[in-house]
Design goal:
single chain, alpha+beta, CBS-domain, Uridine Diphospho-n-acetylenolpyruvylglucosamine Reductase, domain 3, 5-stranded antiparallel sheet, 4-stranded mixed sheet, 16 helices, 51% helix, elongated
């Protein structure tokens, strides 16, 4: 150990260098703390500083008026000072330690520790608790230093903007990616997952996928008497009914039941056609999201769906759209699960117009069970036509995925009721 010579004989230059080193370390600590102090301030904090008469509030607002410039100035000041600290520390070590390995250890380990702890970590920890007090102290020094560092700050801001302009823009997350994320979610409840899935698929779904088909529309003929209209309303209980001339392809408006309430005591001579409102029409391929916006803008709750030839295809209400997100909405006039009956443990009878999703839910099978044969079908009747590829007759049976389907009743070529027999080993 005799060859290790350590001496501390510092001349005036060495003392000045140490003083400058300590000063630079203080400026580094100020720059680090100012970043936390300024960007932690909320509008409420600034108002509180004004009300308490704290100094330098106007200076703080001036700095925060251009946050990009402020952040760039702090980074330039901090990094410049840190470079000076490292250079000064190396110069001082040249005169204090003659043993090479010990000098290297001091420069790399001890100087780095001092710089990180006193110049970065400690100031930021303290500032997080007293950010308003620190901001008022460092505001003027940072403003003055930002003027000195302006040339470098200007170049840094400009280079950052150029980088943003030439950098490739990231692609937006696709609907499929969002759907995959929802499917992988394990923390959500089943109901939450259904709502999330409904939101994800909402933007891509079209009106024709949820509309009530033409054959199921309950409408009022324009030449009906007032008594017949009231009987129709009492029978079906709808709050809005389309009004047509001659046939369903000539819908002329919508009758709102609430508009009739003040005329209920009038006799059959009342001209109810005078209170019919204009109908809102929409194409079948319109997105649900766009239709909902139209409903909000036009202040309507029902749309008549017509094709390119003007023929009525179906009807969509606000409730139909909302049900795509939150699920089935039932009121006191709805009959619970009226679209099916359970005969025994393995046998069910469904209405032909039952949605395939509702059928799979009742049967407790996977929603995508029939995806390979479903095609564009949305209902049980449509599914049978897709599987059979032809019209079916009464009592005719078909089988798919080990599940038997039997046509119980028809209305022309329209399938009204279907018996579904589940395999015994799956129940």
């Amino acid at each position: 150990m005799s060859d290790i010579v350590i001496y501390l004989g510092l001349n005036t230059t060495g003392v000045i260098q140490i003083f400058i080193l300590v000063l630079m370390l203080g400026i580094s600590a100020m720059a680090s703390s100012s970043e936390i102090a300024f960007f932690s301030l909320s509008r409420e904090d600034i108002n509180q500083m004004k009300s308490t008469g704290r100094a330098n509030v106007s200076c703080i607002e001036r700095l925060l008026s251009n946050p990009d410039k402020l952040l760039a100035s702090i980074l330039v000041i901090n990094n410049t000072v840190n470079i000076i600290i490292v250079i000064l520390a190396a110069r001082i070590m040249e005169g204090m330690f003659q043993f090479l390995h010990f000098k290297f250890l001091f420069e790399v380990v001890i100087v780095t520790f001092i710089l990180l702890f006193f110049g970065e970590i400690l100031p930021k920890v303290v500032t997080q608790r007293y950010h308003m007090y620190v901001a008022s102290i460092v505001a003027y020094p940072i403003l003055c230093l930002s003027w000195i560092a302006y040339p470098l700050t200007f170049l840094l801001i400009k280079s950052g903007r150029i980088t943003k302009e030439i950098a490739p823009k990231k692609n937006d997350i696709s609907i499929e990616d969002l759907a995959d994320v929802v499917d992988m979610t394990t923390d959500s409840t089943t109901e939450e997952r259904k709502i999330l899935s409904g939101i994800v698929g909402f933007a891509s779904r079209e009106v024709e996928e949820i509309m009530k088909p033409r054959m199921d529309i309950i409408a009022v003929e324009n030449n009906m008497s007032f008594l017949e209209v009231k009987q129709l309303i009492i029978r079906y209980g709808y709050s809005r009914l389309p009004v047509f001339n001659d046939d369903m392809d000539h819908i002329i408006g919508i009758l709102y039941v609430k508009d009739l309430t003040q005329h209920l005591n009038k006799d059959d001579s009342f001209v109810w056609q005078s209170i019919v409102r204009d109908a809102y029409f929409a194409p079948p391929h319109k997105k649900l999201e766009d239709l909902l916006k139209d409903f909000q803008r036009e202040k309507v709750h029902m749309a008549v769906i017509v094709d390119e030839y003007g023929a009525t295809q179906g009807l969509v209400t606000m409730e139909d759209i909302l049900e795509e997100v939150v699920g089935e909405i039932s009121d006191e006039s709805d009959h619970k699960e009226a679209f099916y009956r359970r005969i025994n443990e393995n046998t069910y009878i469904f209405d032909g117009k039952t949605h395939i999703v509702d059928m799979t839910r009742i049967l407790e099978i996977d929603e995508g069970t029939f995806s390979d044969v479903q095609g564009k079908a949305e209902t049980v009747a449509g599914l049978l036509l897709e599987i059979h590829r032809n019209f079916l007759h009464k009592n005719e049976e078909i089988k798919s995925h080990n599940i038997r389907f039997q046509v119980l009743s028809l209305d022309g070529h329209r399938i009204k009721q279907v018996k579904i027999i589940m395999p015994v080993d799956e129940k």
